[in-house]
Specification:
With 278 residues, the protein is α/β, with parallel strands linked by helices. Helix content is 40%, strand content 17%. The protein binds S-adenosylmethionine. Residues 16-21, 45-49, 51-52, 66-69, 92-94, 114, 116, 119 line the site of S-adenosylmethionine (SAM).
């Protein structure tokens, strides 16, 4: 890869989170972790020099890969010259209409990516909240972010992102990846996380109400959930107590101790009472 990058006068851009992978065993392991097979359509965010794209193309039916940095065009043309099932789109994925990207990939698909660290959570949240055809994501992220994605209720890493992911499906770390396996090496270690939208997850009456409830639960971690409910949904103390009582939640709890399912039940009650999700 170094030769190819040198040949095309490529310089790494920190602002795009460019830390590339080259270890073939790791690349193949990521593709396996994701569960990609010859029937799978894959959406990749950040092709880089194309190392993961190539490993995906060897197994998948089709790969659509977004890359913001047009200076990688000649590098990718060379890396992927033998791949008839890959299309690289040179656009900023964060400015792309997700519905249009989903139409391009066609039907249901998996997201597999070594994500640029500066947009990791926004990229994942886009698929969690809007990814209609998305069956799941297998993504390389900073280890600390991986812990947040998979955290248990009540733990210090548990937060709004964890609860949002848990509503769509299960989350698990598939492998830890030392910083030395990236070029250039970042300052932190990474982990591969698999978010599976076909396993786990639960239904709520209103997605909007769930989002609002989750936001409220983590609004002010030092306040009780009762107080946060009162300020977020203009409830009286009596109304807030009644809601928590009907969930069987003890008075004085903090939002972060509720499981995602309990937050779902709370959001259904708020929605039914006309307080949220409108
Ligand atoms: N997939 C390659 C690999 O594993 O070696 C590169 C991964 S590197 C961590 C992230 C890549 O995402 C970079 O090539 C960067 O230019 C690209 N990128 C950063 N922001 C992007 C965005 N908003 N849309 C599309 N690509 C982006």
């Amino acid at each position: 890869m170094d030769d190819l990058l040198f040949k095309h006068h490529f310089t790494f851009k920190k602002r795009y989170g460019q830390n590339f992978l080259t270890d073939r065993n790791l690349l193949r392991a990521i593709v396996s972790d994701a569960g990609v097979d010859e029937k799978t359509a894959v959406l990749e965010i950040g092709a880089g020099a194309g190392a993961l794209t190539l490993a995906l193309a060897e197994r998948a039916k089709k790969v659509i890969s977004y890359e913001i940095d047009k200076s990688l065009q000649p590098v990718l043309a060379e890396t992927l010259s033998d791949c008839g099932n890959v299309e690289v789109v040179f656009r900023d994925f964060m400015r792309e209409d997700l519905a249009a990207a989903e139409r391009a990939v066609g039907g249901d698909y998996l997201v597999v990516a070594n994500l640029p660290y500066y947009v990791t959570t926004p990229v994942v949240m886009r698929f969690v909240e809007e990814g209609k055809g998305c069956r799941g994501l297998t993504v390389m992220v900073q280890e600390e972010v991986a812990r947040r994605f998979c955290a248990k209720a009540g733990s210090p890493d548990y937060g709004a992102v964890t609860a949002a992911i848990a509503r769509r499906g299960s989350a698990a770390v598939t492998r830890l990846v030392p910083r030395t396996l990236f070029t250039p090496s970042p300052n932190v270690d990474s982990a591969v996380v698999r978010l599976d939208f076909t396993a786990g997850g639960f239904a709520v009456r209103s997605e909007k109400a769930y989002r609002e409830t989750v936001r409220c639960a983590f609004l002010n971690r030092r306040k009780t959930l009762e107080n946060n409910l009162m300020s977020a949904f203009s409830l009286s103390r009596g109304e807030a107590k009644e809601l928590l009582g009907s969930l069987g939640v003890p008075a004085g709890v903090r939002g972060e101790t509720l499981s995602p399912e309990q937050l779902g039940a709370l959001s259904d009650l708020l929605f039914a009472a006309g307080k949220s999700g409108k």
